[in-house]
Each structure stands twice: as structure tokens, then as C-alpha cells.
Amino acid sequence: MIPAGFWKRLAARLIDMLIISVLTIPIVIFYMPRLEPFLLTYQQALASADIEYAQRAFSALTSEMVSALSPTMLVVETLYFSLQEASRYQATLGKRVLGIKVVNRNGERVSLLQSVARTLAKYVSGFIFCIGYLMAAFTRRKQALHDLVTDSFVVNNDKNRQAADADNRTSTFVS
């Protein structure tokens, strides 16, 4: 098993986040009527030129957006990553595009439970300046915090072994 490099993993994550953003547009549209009163209040506050009022209105709007969308986004992201990484492909769409997959310590497909745990552990990886994600650049097996916690690995598909060998030779990360 050849570990997938940090940059390849980052590119896959960006592709996945783009896909998730497109998938969630209908959810945002669904929540728009709920946000309309807060948007109107914010517009009135801006028009009034009362800065304190505008700040309170903006705070109420963002608070409502977070409380309305955060649980939904948690479910969408958890389903997106967990179901795909536990599937026969062992990879999200972004990982598939880049020829990488998620495996357990034996090089086999991760279980659905392990995949869900890995997905939820990604939130911990991102808490403090994404240090948990950056760990993948510096660990010997290129594991991020969520990989270490769930005893999983992101590796290059066998089909991409030659490209991975070249990628690993040019890598200067410490173990």
C-alpha cells in the first residue's frame, strides 16, 4: 500500500467540497423562507444607518443560519463521506477522480461504522487551524488525525502505483 500524498488528498477534499456545495443548494433554497424575516430586519437595519441595530440584526441572521443549516450539513457530509468510503469503491467522488481510496490496516475496505467514525473525526481534525489535516503531510504513513484515530489509511489505487512512486520520491516530508 502506497500512502496518498498530502496534496493529492487536499485536491480530493476540495473536489468533494465543491460537490457537497452543489448538492446543498436545494437545502439552502428550502431554508430561505425561514431566513426571510431575518434578512428583512437586517436590510432595515442597514437602511437606518444605526450600526448597533445592524450588528444585532446581522448577529440574529447568522445565528439563525447556523442553527438551521449546521445540523443538516452535518448529516449531508456524514452521509456523503461515510457511504462512499465504505462502498465497494472505497472512495468519495473526489478521491476516485484522483485515484486514491480509504482502507483499514489490512488494506481492506473500511466498515460503515469505521467510515462514520472517520467522517465525524474529521471535525476534530479541522478544529484548530486544520492541524489534524496537516498531520498527513508529516506522518510516516501520511495519516491525518482522523486516520490515526480510526486506524485507517488513504492510499493510491494499485492502478496508480507508478504515479504514486514518483509522487513519493519528490516528497520531502519528515516522518
From TrEMBL:
Organism: Zymobacter palmae
Any Gene Ontology CC annotation: plasma membrane
InterPro entries: Pra-immunoreactive (IPR051791), RDD (IPR010432)
Keywords attached to this entry: Cell membrane, Membrane, Transmembrane, Transmembrane helix
Keyword Methyltransferase (UniProt): no
Bilayer-crossing regions: 12-32, 120-138
Signal peptide start and end residues: none
Lineage: Bacteria, Pseudomonadati, Pseudomonadota, Gammaproteobacteria, Oceanospirillales
The name this protein goes by in its record: Predicted membrane protein/domain
Membrane topology note: Multi-pass membrane protein
RDD domain ranges (all copies): 3-150
UniProt xrefs under PANTHER family: LMO1584 PROTEIN, PROLINE-RICH ANTIGEN HOMOLOG-RELATED
Places the protein is found: Cell membrane
Keyword Cell membrane belongs to the record: yes
